[in-house]
Amino acid sequence: MRRRAHARAHAEEHDNHERWLVSYADFITLLFAFFVVMYSLSTVNEGKYRVLSDSLVTAFRNVNINTRGQQVAPGANAPAPAQALPQIRPRPPVSPAQLREEQRKQQSREQMREMAKDILQALAPLVKEGKVRVSEGLKGITVEINASVLFPVGEARLQPAAVKALRAVAEVAAPADFPITVEGHTDPTPIATSQFPSNWELSGARASSVVRLFVEAGVAAPRLTATGYGEQRPVDSNDTPEGRARNRRVTILIEAQHPDDIKELPVKE
Q: Does the predicted TM-score (pTM) go above 0.90?
């Protein structure tokens, strides 16, 4: 009995030592399957990939393409006409006349800027004292001169010191062909003299005095216009002496021949 039990135990112990082969075989099988799957994933069918890609694009566009090549909304019974893609139209060729006009405008802009710089340089001392303002804008060059620099109180006769400054402006403007408007302005203080019954006459006479000097300095008379506004267009408050002094002025506007000839570009004082 002891020999049979010993033999049975010895046999069972021998069988247990061989069971690792089963686990090893399972591991090899799984490893083989893993490499087979990896190989299959690395091989892409190009034709099927393109079909899948086109299907996804069509689905995201939410448009079905029928056999006639027409685009129809999903679920529509009848195909709608194909929508034409937007076309970029080529710019029409520039004609010689348009090219000449653009060149003329460019020359006009450059000439305006040069004139503004020259006027600003000629009137630099008065600009520094705050008695003259020079700016360049859509309408052209504006030169605003305090009336105290040009005229005695209540008069339209130019002071000798003002003639030099105005001649400098006229010499810069004379070679060009831009129209020039001279505006006279006053404050609301009433005036009633035998020569000037109201501020209208005073402002108009002051503008005419400047125009006459411009003609004598070589500016063509047909380019010039004199206008009197009286106290109707103030640029400052008339409640203070400083504001009234600012409103008593003569404005020289060298006008751009076309409103779009120059861009808004203030001149630094």
A: no
